[in-house]
Amino acid sequence: MRSNIGSRANAQCTYDNAHVRREWRTLPRATRKSFTDAVVCLQSMKPQIMTTAQAHQYAGVKSRWDEFVATHINYTMNIHDTADFFAWHRAFVSYLEEDLRTLCGYIDYMPYWNWAEDSAAPQNSPLFTGDAYSMGSNGEYVSGRTDTWLAQQDVTFPPGTGGGCLKSGPFSKMVVNLGPLDLPNADNVASSFQYNPRCLQRDINPWFSKNYNTWTNLTEVVLKNANVEDFQWRLQGYNSDTDKFGVHGGGHYSIGGSMMDFHSSPAEPLFYLHHGMVDRIWTIWQNLDIGSRQNSIHGTGTLGCSVPDCPAMQLTDRLPFGFVRTADPVFKDMMDTFAGPLCYRYE
Description:
- It holds the Pfam family Tyrosinase.
- Keywords: Metal-binding.
- Helix content is 30%, strand content 7%.
- The protein is mostly helical.
- Helix 3 packs across helix 8.
- The longest helix is centred in the N-terminal third of the chain and has 18 residues, at 85-102.
- It is globular, with a radius of gyration of 19 Å.
C-alpha cells in the first residue's frame, strides 16, 4: 500500500500520518473500554440533527445513535446491491468514528473485526467474553428452536448458540429503539421508524461463519474477482448460486439477533466493526490494482434495478446521509482512504 500512496490527491495524507484502524483483539484494554464507553455515550445523547418537528414521523429516534440507525433504515434499498454499497458504508463508518471521538471522547480510531480468525467458533471469540473490555456477550441461550428457511436464498440454517438478550458486558443494558423490519422469526414493526424498545439480542451462529466467513472465503473474494461488478456481487452474496450470503451477509447472520435485520442492523454496535472489515477488504482489493480499481464502480442506486430501468450511478453523485450529516458527500470523495476528507489505513 505504501507504494500506491504517492499518486493520491491528498498530498497531506501519507502512510505515516494516516489514522490507523486496528483489529479489535489487538487493542489495549483501555482503548476497548474507551470505544464501548463512547458507544454508550452516543446511545444516551439526544438526537443532533433530527428536529422537533420531525420527531413525530421518526418516533423511534431517541438518541444520536438512533439517528444512524434511522438513516440506514431510510436508505436500505439504495445502499445494498448498488454501485455505492462500499462507498456509502465507508462513509457511514467514518462518520460514526468521528462522532465517537468528537462527541464522546473515544481515544482511538474505528476498530474492525476479522471474523476469519473466529470462523470455526465465533461464540468463543475474545470479542464476546462479556467482560468490561469486550463487545459484550452472546445472547442468553433459547432452547427448543427449529431450523429456519429463508425463501429468498432458499437456504435452511440451524439455530445459533444464543438467541436472547445479551447476558453481560457493556451493552447488556442497551435499549434498541428501532426495528426490526425484516427479521426471521420475529415480531417485525408495522412502520419503518416505529418506537419499539427492547434489549439487544444476539444468536451467534457458527453455521454461517463456517460457510461464509473463513480465510478461504476471504481470500477468494479478493483474488478471484478482477472487476468491480464480480467483486461486489460475490462479497455481498448476490447473483451467486454457491455463495448466497457472501462474507458481508455471512458476517451479519453469524451474529444473529438485531444484526440480522436488513434495515435496522446498525443498532448492533458490532455492525461497525463488521463493516470496518468489509471496508478493509475493499481497500485491499483496490490496492491490488490501484490504477484500474481506485475509482471503479458498477451499478445503479436502487436494489434489484439494473440499467436501463434505473440510471447508472456516477462518481459525481451525492450519497444520501439524512440524520447522520447535514451535507451529503460526493461519491468520489469516498473512493480513497488517503484522499478527500479521509486519511486512514488498516493495520
